[in-house]
């Protein structure tokens, strides 16, 4: 009789473990999907910001370039054209960021760093773990209780 009961309990325990494993896997997949969607939304906002910046900076660049060119022609001082050079670099970078291939080049470089220069990505004192976090929490809580006295 006890053997049948323990066999049934073992089967139920095994089913429970499988259910918990399945449930934790499902929860992790959902969390990964959510984090990826948040990352995609943040990147979309960054690209949208770059495109808006290009509109405003492009207008500023056009007005400034026209003004400096007319001023240089009117008073015959070509030195007035000097600010156009750095402004052109800024505009080119922003255009590449907003509409060009900058994001793809950056992704390629990031992948290269992750594969061939992984040691650059290490955190000081290593990756945080439960023990290090708990130690810091205890230090803060003892400090807080000490300061309250």
UniProtKB/TrEMBL annotation:
Pfam families: DUF2368
Name this polypeptide is given: Plasminogen receptor, C-terminal lysine transmembrane protein
One of the GO biological process terms: positive regulation of plasminogen activation
Native source species: Cyclopterus lumpus
Any one GO CC term of the record: plasma membrane
PANTHER family: PLASMINOGEN RECEPTOR (KT) (PTHR13411:SF6)
Highest taxon above the source species: Eukaryota
InterPro entries: Plg-R(KT)
